[in-house]
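look at this fold:
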Amino acid sequence: MVDTFRMDDARTAFRGKSVVFLGDSLNRHLYQDMVTPLCSGELTSHEKLNKRGKDIPSYLNDKLVRHGDLIRGRGYKEEREMILPDCDITLRFYFLTRCWSQHLETYLRKMKDDHGSPDLIIVLSCLWDINRWGSEGIQQYRDNCGNLLRFVKTQLGARTQVMWLTCPPISVDVSSRGLVVEGMKDTHAMRFNVMEANLMVARTAASFGFDVLDLHNMMVHQVHRRQPDGLHWTQAAVRFQVNMILTHFCKSRDLRLPGTLGMLCGNRGKLLGLKENTSESENKDNKKNDINQNITNVLK
């Protein structure tokens, strides 16, 4: 079940926390849409979600810290940061084309030296790993996944929680220019490689004692909310994923949820004819009586 977080709810959940997003454009969308509820409580527009790098130098309290040229290759770089001083909340984003590299190690070590270990690292890295690094990409992804988790466990310490997000389902036909390059063969098999990669990374993360949030499973029934490129998601779907992250974070730390699920259930109960402040058996009796009355009315 996924709760719904308004601005005050999101701020309460992340108050005093430092959160780092590591991943590709899918995770950048999550970072951007995490900034929005923390700062304005609204949905992030598609126009903002589809911008990257120097095309969006700042957004609400977020700013572009470091970037490279707007290329589609493996050398693309983008670092972002959002700080809310009044809530003591810091969000950071680091673009990955593979889930472990010397550049990422340098970034994490510098961040620890300058700001201390983060409270939460959210990782979503899959599509570039298995599609843009040649024939050895999948094997390297398996090794790099373990390398990243091992580094976090040994170098950042027990304070840092890792939440690895499985890659959401992609379409049969993917047209993202950053992912599909000239000469790439059999892109139709890409979605099956994603499923296998998700299984591998889930088992690996669990073996290190870290969290796995299965976006793939949760988004299978939301594919109508994918964007036309077959890879990215609409603003409503991205917010759904952000709410999943916040819900999981609160549950993992025994934090109080906003409780919107309870309100929805209460309304649904009224629609089903259930009365408030009554026991389950009384509700069943009431429902049975209503059914019998309806049958009687029909027979008349």
Remarks:
- DSSP finds eleven helices and eight strands in the chain.
- Residues 7-258 form a domain with the Rossmann fold fold (CATH 3.40.50.1110).
